Amino acid sequence: MGSLITGILLVLTFVLFITFAMRGGNLTVGFFVMAIVWTIIGLIPLNVAIKEIFTDPVLNYGKTALYIILGSWFGRVLVDTGIAGSISRRTQSVGSKAPVIATILIAIITALIFSSAYGVGSAIAVGVILFPIMFSMGVPKNIAVSIFTLSIGAAMYINPVLFNQFTVFFKGVVWGDHYLRFGFVAMAIQMLVVIAMILFYARKIRNGKPFVVESETPETSVPPDVNPITYLLPVLPVAMSIFFKWDAIPALLLATILAFAMTGNMKSYVHFVQMMNTTTKTAIGDIAGLLIMLLVLTMFQSAAVHTMGQFTTIFKHIIPDSRLLMVFIMMVIAPLSYFRGPLMLYGAGAATAAIFTATGLFPPYFLYGLLVVPTMMAVSADITQSWNLWSVEYAKLDTKTFLLTGLPWAWIATILNLLAAYVLL
C-alpha cells in the first residue's frame, strides 16, 4: 500500500511539474521544489538527502559550470573582437547578387560559430549582426528567424559546452570519438534540413522586400575587418578535441587567447586587460541565471534517481525494451519536448531521464540519443528556449508564426536524427 501511495504522489507531482513548466514557470524554482518534494515522497533519510541530493551533485557540477562559462566567454570574444562581424560582412557582399546562396552561407556560418560558442548572450551578439543582413536581402522575418535558431540547434550536437551539461543525465557518456561520430552526422543532417528549408522558400527569399534595421551593435566598437584566417577559430576547440584529444577547457582557452592575439587586442597590456575584463563580465552575466538553474537541476536529478529506484521493476514492465520500437515512439511524440514538456531535458524531461536511467533497459549512449534528439528539437524551434524567444522578439514576429514555420522542419530533422542515433549509438 505504501508503494502505491508513493507512486500516486510521484505521478501527481510529475503532472503538476509538467503543467508548471509548460506554462512558463520559473524552472529554478520548479526544480528546487521538486527536489524537496520527491525527497520527502521517497522517504529519503535526512542525512542521505543533505549529502547525496543537496551537496555532492552541486559540488560535482563545478567542471561542467566551467565549460559553460568558457563557452559563453569564447562566444562573446568572437563578437567583441570583430571576428563574427567580419565573417558576416563577407557573406553580405554575396547577398545582393545571390540572396539564396547568401542565406545558406549565413546558416552555415551560424552553425560553425556555435559549434563552440554558447549562451544566449553569444546568440544575441551574433543575431544583431546576422538578422539585419538577412532582412536587407529580403529574407522574410519568419524564415530568417527559423534559419537562425535551427542552425544554432544543429551546432549544439557537437558543442562541447552543451554536451557536458547533458552528462548529468547519462552517467558513462563521455566526450570522444564514439559520441562525435553521431554528433557530426546529426549536425550535418539538421543543416541539410535547414538548406532544404531555404531552397523550399527560395522564391519568397528572392522576391522578398528588403527591410533595413539599425544594428544594436555600434559599428565603432567592432573593427571593420580582421584577418580571414581568424574565421577558423570558431571550430578550433572542436578540432583540438577530435585530433589531439584535448579537453574542451584548454581548447576553448586556446581559441579565446588566439582570438585576442590575432585581432590585435594583445598589443597593449592595458587594452588586453580591459577587453578581457569586459568580455568576461558580460559573458558570465549572460549565463548567471542558467548556471543557478543547472545547479538546482542536479539536485532534482539526484532526488529523482533515488526515488525512482524504488519503482525500477514497475517501469521495466511498462517501457518497451525494443530499441527500434522506442525510436519510432519518440519520432511520433517528439513535440512533447516543446514548452519544457516531458521530453525536454531542461524541463519535465529531467524526470523522464531519471525514469529511463533507473530501469537500466538501454545502454547510456543509446539513451542519450533517444532523449537528447527531442530536446534538440525544442532547442532549435521552441519559443521557451532563451535565444529563440529573443530572436522572435527582435524580429517582432508573433509566436504562432514562429512555431508553425520552424516546427515541421525541426520535426523532420528529429526523425532523421533518431534513426541516426539508432544506427550509430
UniProtKB/TrEMBL annotation:
This protein's record includes keyword Transmembrane: yes
Keyword list, A-Z: Membrane, Transmembrane, Transmembrane helix
Ranges that cross the membrane: 31-54, 66-88, 100-131, 143-162, 182-202, 242-263, 283-303, 324-345, 402-424
Superkingdom of origin: Bacteria
The UniProt record lists the keyword Transmembrane helix: yes
Protein name per UniProt: Gluconate:proton symporter
Taxonomic source organism: Lacticaseibacillus zeae subsp. silagei
